[in-house]
Amino acid sequence: MPETKVVRLGVCGCGMIAEHHLAAMKLWESPVIVTVAIDPSEARRNIVSELTGAQAYATLEEALAEAADSMDAIALMLPHDLHAAYSLKVLAAGKHLFLEKPVARDAEESQQIFDAAAAAFKATGSRFFMAENSSFWPEVYRAKQLVQEGAIGEVVTARSHYYESMDDTPMNPDKDSKTKGNVEGSNSSGSGGGDGADVGGGNGDGDGDGNAALEEGSDDSESSESARYERADTGWLSWRSSLERSGGGVVLDGGQHWIRPLREFFGEEVKSVVATTGRPMKVLEGESLAHAILEFDSGRHASFQATVLGKSSAMSTREPCFRVIGTTGEIVVVGGFGAGGYIMRTGGIEEPLLPEGAPGGFLTSFGPQMNDFANAILQDKPFYRAPEYAMGDMLVAKAIAKSASSRAWVDVWDAKTEHFKQTF
Ligand SMILES: NC(=O)c1ccc[n+]([C@@H]2O[C@H](COP(=O)([O-])OP(=O)(O)OC[C@H]3O[C@@H](n4cnc5c(N)ncnc54)[C@H](O)[C@@H]3O)[C@@H](O)[C@H]2O)c1
């Protein structure tokens, strides 16, 4: 690998999450420059190219053929059905791989990626990073720290609720101009970064309301479900609508970010789950509602709920997104996308979770995450969370879907996946 002070990144998949990463990279002054933008949609790749000065290509193959020398790493921000095949291409090209969650649609595809990553590391030294940003979510990170310090005694139970109002129509190319404005508008202030694990450091202006970034102009003019599927090639909800393409419903998608923190708080793996699911958002073939009980290795239980509705819904963000109850206290992370929270100690003493003025909220996690990726590569050190951690998030999501259809408790791990189990 060439010795550089920055990581030159190709972004493959210039959709919604790519925009969040670009905004975060600027806010946190990441040691990353985007040199290549890849997307079959000309409008999408041009947005990233205009924002970063990157060379734009329609396919990964073209980019590798013409611009391989200007990329150290490639970030895959793609529909889930492309994760395995594209990861293998990136690793075969000798590039570091940054892969958005979930690892893939199932355990078999994920194993292919891990096998290819192990072989690539041996052959070329390229590294594999699984992007699950909730480990870098300041409130989650602080809560985990407090739990480890014994600030609430022994964890008795916990609860997480992922709730979100989503655009229920596929992205209309006409929306691109509004989307671009949104990203530019969010690059207003802040600097910092450094060690990605130091999630409390630096400045960001994440407002913690993920909805704000997701609520670009929607186009409800195409109201019939069949019309939505016909426009499926460009819509961000389009591939999510298909169970075949996404590998699951909202639990495997956004729900991952509310499952990982429960594992962090308990400091152990989920052993089995029992769940019910529903489909209030009919455009999604997978579940958009889930209630699950997660049983951890120690026998303790947590509950997890996911509720995703169309944009016309009005879900109050007063409900905490995390509640961790211990023998001598409780930690609460407030709001739908968790910006702020408090610790309640014996005797009713309440203290804020983060120091005053510290950046917080879900969106604040992207900068530290990218910095962890880049700094680990540049300084040849381990990532804050090894990619294997992401297997637990994905397998819990798969077990929730399986339990809902079998109406029975389902084990999360089997003989083929047990080697991915982590200690926290
Ligand atoms: N960490 C988070 O908070 C978070 C949030 C949303 C999505 N995600 C993850 O990010 C990934 C992408 O999700 P998204 O919401 O950005 O989806 P999206 O549909 O908005 O973007 C995907 C982009 O990939 C492009 N694409 C499709 N096929 C391609 C190909 N063959 N080569 C290159 N580009 C191609 C599409 O044109 C689109 O622009 C998924 O893995 C998703 O789970 C993570």
Q: Helix proportion of residues, in percent? A: 25-40%
**What is the molecular shape?**
globular
Order of helices and strands: EHEHEHEHEHEHEHHHHHHEEEEEEEHHE
Structural class of the helix and strand makeup? alpha/beta
CA radius of gyration: 20 Å
Profile the largest sheet: 9 strands, mixed
The average pLDDT is 86
Task: Work out the number of β strands.
Answer: 15
Ligands present: nicotinamide-adenine-dinucleotide
* Number of contiguous helices: 14
Report the β-strand fraction as a percent range: 15-25%
Which stretches of 5+ consecutive residues score pLDDT under 50?
Answer: 171-234
Report the end-to-end length measured between terminal Cα atoms: 31 Å
Q: What spatial order of strands do you see in the largest sheet?
A: 14-13-12-11-7-10-9-8-15
Characteristic terms for this protein:
14 helices; binds nicotinamide-adenine-dinucleotide; 6-stranded parallel sheet; globular; about 425 residues; alpha/beta; 9-stranded mixed sheet; about 20% strand
Task: Explain what this protein looks like in three dimensions.
With 424 residues, the protein is α/β, with parallel strands linked by helices. It contains 14 helices and 15 strands. The strands form two sheets. The protein has a nine-stranded mixed sheet. Strands 3-2-1-4-5-6 form a six-stranded parallel sheet. Helix 2 (42-52) links the parallel strand 2 and strand 3 (55-57). Helix 1 (16-27) packs across helix 13, helix 6 (138-148) runs parallel beside helix 12 and helix 12 crosses helix 14 (389-406). It is globular and about 65 Å long. Bound molecules: nicotinamide-adenine-dinucleotide. Residues 12-18, 38-41, 44, 60, 77-80, 82, 100-101, 133, 236, 253 line the site of nicotinamide-adenine-dinucleotide.
